[in-house]
Write a structure and sequence with these properties.
Belongs to the glycosyltransferase 2 family. This protein is of the alpha/beta class and 815 residues long. The strands form 7 sheets. It has a 7-stranded mixed sheet with strand order 3-2-1-4-7-5-8, with helices on both faces. α3 links the parallel β2 and β3 (75-80). The protein starts with a helix and ends in a 5-residue tail after the last strand.
Length: 815
């Protein structure tokens, strides 16, 4: 009895100090010894009550409980008319309790009642809201083990529970838990689960409220006749799913729906006729991306190498890892691509990806920036639907589908907190690995943005930086380790495998004009194509265009909230990214003054040398999103209605001009019957290619649509991809040029047909042999007559044959 005093303290006023709740279902044989053991341990050391909850038993459990209650008024019995599960029984018992502390324990006392002393001590010394028995913490003793199968299922279940519900708690299912009474009653009143998942639900409630929980090692023995069957592990998983669904707030659902609706409206013209719609501003990128999705699905279906193909640029092939097929999405979407075609995959990736990105930024801002979820939602919308993202959403899903970046940022911040360094480091490594298979360049830009933020925040909060250095370094070591193991081979293939290249040079004029930072994009509500086209490389590279109202609002918010270290870091990150995006040479608008920009420091460094520096301004989008979220959250707490109204009006006026409009589409050319009907099969033998005239290249890649829409049955030379050129293997867009492909390209662009003699014919014969050409195909196009004459002359005056709506030349014998 001596230990009982440590468990509870007698209240002189007679208040119940401890309530013990015992759920029971068909426990006629074990209940009486359990009640005797509890009564013996507690004795007269404090004011206590013992509540037995019968869960619709079919034996004499109620009789045994009532006999015990008849002999001791401190024992009471609660009866459920039907068997509804442990969770329901515990809820009835805890809500019927009065104790300052509440102990819940299983009827079999697998954890001896004497372990109550350890839990009580942990609660008192640790000032926690609960102390739960654990069989998984150091110091725990398993005196009688379960079967190997049940132990394995239990460990697997605990890992899953930690991952999805209560990270950091190693054993949620040990039925021996001591709670603060009032907090327990609040938690059980909020609970909805009736089964074994109630333990997880209660602990999740405590975590949401910020009530600390101590996990205490205990003795435990498996008791024969346990009511936990193998099927109950499955029921716990089902209840976990219900818990996750219930954890979603109404605002989460509303914002998710709004993000999805916004994305659908952006692409409504594309969705209006998937069979024929082509995004007008995507140039040849929609053809390229649909080809990427198609070739990945084909590789998956036929168990081919997913990192290389010769379907394009035959016979040299394409290094897919050195391009952007987004294997992280194109592989899981392969069944959809195979069943419904790559255009549906293209539309789904863009639409769902944009919505998911907005939601991910919202989730990060709600966790890290502001408690007001509507304000966080506004910031998430800006981060995902900012003008640069909309520009890339025409053609570059790898630059607008960024849902992993907020998750990576959050995991890095968790490392700085140092709570679970190994786990968070490993998860960060897995997240980074997945992002590599979504887009490497955007990961590099994200790392640059995170480095700018970390540097500025460290200067503002040196104490926080010093505390974060060690856990961050340790966690990063885990992250780098797991990431390198997973991506070492793919990266080797990318940088040293077939058709690898060293860099893609974009010249020294790929930076933004300073005017681009304050002007409006072509797809913004207040924008126009003429101004935007003048200040950008093309309509898919409008990498700034935030508009002067938003820039002015951001400046005002920074001034108003300058004392906050977060604001200082966001401001520095945004300004630094904007300046870097101006490129190696910065020209002062309306003057001839040019000076060297800070990007010069990065321009020729490994990896950075392939970056279009104007894209660095994309870092400003989440920085502005976080700043707007913080400002809107502060406004929501404003003292007067006038201040709130004025503030939100200013935010609306700053964001309204950059609201994106729907993407325009046009009707794509029909696939020639010669291709769509399979007539080509008669002319292209094994190991041969079909040669479009002119060859597909970044300026005209319709032949890739011929392939992707008909099952990739034939290979083509040329194409639209990144590949090597010259002895230095410099990266270029498209295939290494050959005499004949250059000639076709010149004629297509309107140049006159040269004097084609023996030299040209010999060169054409050599090129056709190199391409293993089976047939030349000339589809209807603006320069078709000139191209027809050029091909005929190259082939010694051989006329073409009109088949299936195209002119063809069977050249398998010519070679």
């Amino acid at each position: 009895m001596g230990g009982a005093t440590a468990a509870v303290i007698t209240d002189p006023a007679g208040q119940v100090e401890l309530s013990v709740v015992v759920p029971a279902y068909n426990e006629e044989q074990r209940l009486a010894p359990t009640l005797d053991a509890i009564r013996a341990h507690l004795g007269d050391s404090c004011a206590w009550e013992l509540i037995v909850v019968d869960d619709g038993s079919g034996d004499g459990t109620v009789r045994v409980a009532r006999e015990a209650a008849a002999g001791d008024p401190r024992i009471s019995v609660v009866v459920s008319e039907t068997n509804r599960g442990k969770g329901h029984a515990l809820r009835l018992g805890v809500l019927a309790s009065y104790g300052r502390r509440v102990l819940v324990t299983d009827a079999d006392l697998a954890t001896p009642i004497e372990e109550l002393d350890h839990l009580a001590k942990a609660m008192t010394e640790g000032e926690t809201a609960a102390a739960i028995g654990s069989r998984a913490r150091p110091g725990a003793r398993i005196e009688v083990h379960q079967s190997r199968l049940r132990e394995t299922l239990g460990r697997m279940g605990n890992r899953l529970i930690r991952a999805v519900a209560v990270p950091g708690i190693h054993d949620t299912q040990c039925g021996f838990k001591l709670f603060d009474g009032d907090k327990a009653r609040a938690a059980f009143a909020d609970a909805r689960l009736d089964g074994w998942g109630i333990d997880v639900e209660i602990l999740q409630f405590f975590r949401r409220r910020g009530w600390p929980v101590a996990e205490v090692p205990v003795r435990w023995s498996h008791q024969e006749g346990s009511k936990v069957g193998a099927a109950d592990y499955g029921k716990v998983l089902w209840e976990l799913g219900r818990l996750k669904a219930r954890a979603v707030r109404r605002v989460d659902l509303v914002l998710g729906a709004l993000y999805l609706l916004s994305a659908v409206l952006l692409y409504k013209n594309l969705w209006g006729d998937l069979g024929r719609s082509y995004l007008s501003d995507s140039m040849q990128d929609q053809n390229q991306w649909e080809w990427f999705f198609a070739v990945t699905a084909d590789n998956v279906a036929h168990l081919r190498d997913p990192l290389f193909t010769t379907v394009q640029n035959f016979p040299d092939g394409v290094n897919l890892m050195g391009n952007t097929p987004m294997l992280g999405l194109s592989v899981p979407f392969a069944p959809i691509t195979l069943a419904f075609g790559p255009t549906l995959t293209w539309a789904l990736v863009l639409t769902l990806g944009m919505a998911a990105t907005a939601y991910a930024w919202y989730w990060l801002f709600a966790r890290r920036v502001t408690e007001n979820r509507w304000a966080a939602g506004l910031g998430g919308a800006l981060a995902a639907f900012a003008p640069p993202m909309i520009s890339h959403a025409n053609a570059h899903p790898n630059f607008c589908v960024l849902f992993m970046i907020p998750l990576i940022i959050d995991r890095a911040l968790r490392l700085c907190e140092g709570r679970a360094i190994r786990r968070d480091g490993l998860v960060l490594g897995l997240f980074t690995t997945y992002q590599i298979f979504l887009g490497e360049e955007v990961l590099l830009l994200a790392a640059l943005g995170m480095a700018l933020f970390a540097l500025s925040y460290a200067l503002a909060r040196r104490d926080v930086a010093r505390a974060a250095i060690r856990p961050l370094a340790q966690g990063m070591a885990y992250a780098v380790g797991v990431c390198l193991v997973l991506v070492a081979y793919p990266l080797y293939r990318q940088f040293a495998g077939a058709q690898s290249y060293h860099s893609v040079l974009h010249g020294d004029s790929a930076g933004n004009s300073p005017l681009a930072l304050i002007e409006f994009a072509g797809r913004s509500l207040w924008g126009d194509d003429t101004t935007a086209d003048r200040l950008a490389l093309n309509r898919t590279e409008q990498n700034a265009f935030y508009g002067w109202p938003l820039v002015a609002l951001a400046f005002a918010l920074v001034v108003r909230l300058w004392r906050r270290p977060l604001v200082k870091a966001l401001a520095f990150t945004g300004v630094a990214a904007a300046v870097l995006s101006l490129g190696q040479k910065i020209r002062i608008p309306y003057t001839d003054v040019v000076f060297t920009g800070p990007w010069k420091l990065f321009a020729h460094k490994p990896l950075f040398e392939s970056v279009i520096e104007g894209r660095v301004a994309m870092i400003c989008a989440p920085a502005l999103g976080a700043l707007i979220a913080l400002g809107a959250g502060r406004l929501a707490l404003g003292r007067t209605r006038v201040i709130r109204a004025a503030g939100f009006t200013a935010i609306a006026l700053a964001l309204l001009p950059i609201v994106p409009t729907s993407f325009p589409t046009n009707a794509r050319p029909e696939v020639p019957e010669f291709i769509s009907s399979g007539m080509w099969k008669k002319y292209v033998g094994p190991g041969e290619s079909l040669v479009p005239v002119p060859l597909p290249d970044p300026g005209s890649a319709e032949a890739l649509h011929w392939q992707s829409s008909t099952g990739l049955g034939f290979s083509v030379p040329g194409g639209y991809f990144n590949g090597p050129w010259g002895p230095d293997r410099i990266g270029i867009y498209g295939a290494s040029p050959r005499w004949t492909s250059n000639l076709f390209g010149d004629i297509r662009s309107g140049k006159p047909i040269p004097d084609i003699g023996t030299d040209w014919q010999n060169q054409a014969r050599a090129d056709l042999a190199y391409w293993h050409a089976g047939v030349l195909v000339l589809a209807p196009q603006p320069q078709a007559p000139q191209l027809y004459e050029t091909v005929s002359r190259l082939l010694g005056g051989k006329p073409g044959t009109k088949v299936g709506g195209v002119w063809i030349w069977d050249v398998s014998q010519v070679r």
